[in-house]
Write a structure and sequence with these properties.
With about 230 residues, this protein is of the alpha/beta class. It has 7 helices and 10 strands. Keywords: ATP-binding, Cell cycle, Cell division, Nucleotide-binding, Transport.
């Protein structure tokens, strides 16, 4: 069963049409790159997938939720099945790693303290930060903060992870570590991952299916040669 299925969708930023006649399917466990120039519609497509931009034309089903004309009350239920990884981490700077993760769990309906503690330990172990739970964000490197961001995305056992330039602010060695981690997560959890990136070195080093936004279109199965 597809995790993402988009048919004949038109995507807008306000009144401006950004992408036209989008057709796209992503299956369980698949790792997909989303590439394209700045302003070509990558972010708009990602925002549509997590219902930050409304879909009013065409059809799209993401993790079982119909996006077209989705009511705002349904959005939290969609997002509980998603993990979102940001380029700039967006960690709460006034609390430690464990409390950053606990904040998300509480916000998504978790109430049992023991269950929350177990889940926090589980995701920190998944990203190799088991002994960093009490660290403050300012005490951590960029790579470690990105791992916390990924751990946060894993909290609700998502079927789909949307990663927006997750290696954009990282050096090459740390980028390799984060890519290895993301590919491992896709393999071990069977979650689909859609990763937007400008870094074609990463695309060449870790080849996977390429989706390209260009000229108002979404081009599936693009190749390195025509980037």
């Amino acid at each position: 069963m597809p995790i993402i299925e988009i048919k004949n969708a038109n995507i807008y930023q306000g009144e401006n049409q950004v992408l036209k006649d989008v057709n796209l399917t992503v299956n369980k466990g698949e790792f997909v790159y989303l590439v394209g120039r700045t302003g070509s519609g990558k972010s708009s497509l990602l925002k549509t997938l997590y219902a930050d931009l409304p879909l009013t034309e065409g059809d799209a089903v993401v993790v079982g939720h119909q996006l077209r004309n989705m009511h705002w009350r349904e959005v939290p239920y969609l997002r509980r099945k998603l993990g979102i990884v940001f380029q700039d981490f967006r960690l709460l700077t006034d609390r430690n790693v464990a409390e950053n993760l606990r904040f998300v769990l509480k916000a998504t309906g978790w109430k049992d303290k023991k269950a929350m503690d177990e889940k926090i330990n589980e995701v920190l172990e998944q990203v190799g930060l088991k002994h960093k739970a009490l660290k403050m964000p300012f005490e951590m490197s960029g790579g470690e903060q990105q791992r916390v961001d990924i751990a946060r995305a894993l909290l609700n056992s998502p079927k789909l992870i949307l990663a927006d330039e997750p290696t954009g602010n990282l050096d090459p060695i740390t980028t390799d570590e984060i890519m290895t981690l993301l590919l491992s997560i896709a393999q071990k959890t069977n979650a689909a991952i859609v990763m937007a990136t400008h870094d074609y070195t990463v695309v060449q080093k870790y080849p996977a299916r390429l989706i390209k936004t260009e000229g108002g279109k979404v081009i599936d199965n693009a190749t390195i040669d025509n980037l």
